[in-house]
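Fold this sequence, please.
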Amino acid sequence: MPKAITGSTYRSLLQEKIQKKEKEQQQKSERKRIREENKKRKEEEKKNEKMLNRKKRGRQERLKNNADLP
């Protein structure tokens, strides 16, 4: 026959459950923060790459135009 859960046992089990939930929530928020940082970093890299490509394309156009001149 199982023992009855006393008040102190119930409180300790409840406290463990609460701590577990808090830990899971912290892990979830940490993963979310990392995801957002990675997303932001990728957007910055993409933006920088676009700017470099524009500069490169502009430089190539100028060289081409200068080569076309007599």
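The two ends are 103 Å apart (CA to CA). Residues 9 and 47 are 57 Å apart (CA to CA).
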